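Lab notebook page, bench 4
Experiment: in silico fold of construct C2
Operator: M.H.
Input chain length: 142 residues
Purpose: comparison with the prior construct
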Amino acid sequence: MAKTRKKQSAPEGPVQALLSLSPLAGPQVHQFWEMQERLLKEAETFSKHWFERRHTAARTGLQTTAAMFETCTSDPAAAGKALHDWQMQSAERITEDVQEWIDLCTRSAELFASAEVAVNRETMETVSETIKDAGHRHATPV
């Protein structure tokens, strides 16, 4: 005769699943995944802008090259100016890259710091509630 196991019921949702791990681990795990989402969104925004600037650099580079070849023999100064203008725009794009990178790092650090504060507060509240609940349970004298 085969033994039958009682099937454990699964937690109702992701929050209950996290809290079933441990009242103290649940907030930490939940916060980890929330941070993953936020950081991925920040990195995606940075990357999107970076690629837009690279596309602009390539497009304007092609236009500049065409303009330079058209004018290089008839007006070398115009060809030089076209190259100079493109290089200045490239320097501006690089400046934007650096500024957005610094902003990304700053926002990421802020996210980490605020998340740590929030999860520590939640953990301390859980511990406090657990201690209060334990204090209300009194042993019955025999």
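Observations: The CA atoms of residues 54 and 141 lie 77 Å apart. The longest helix spans residues 76-136.
Next step: discuss at group meeting.
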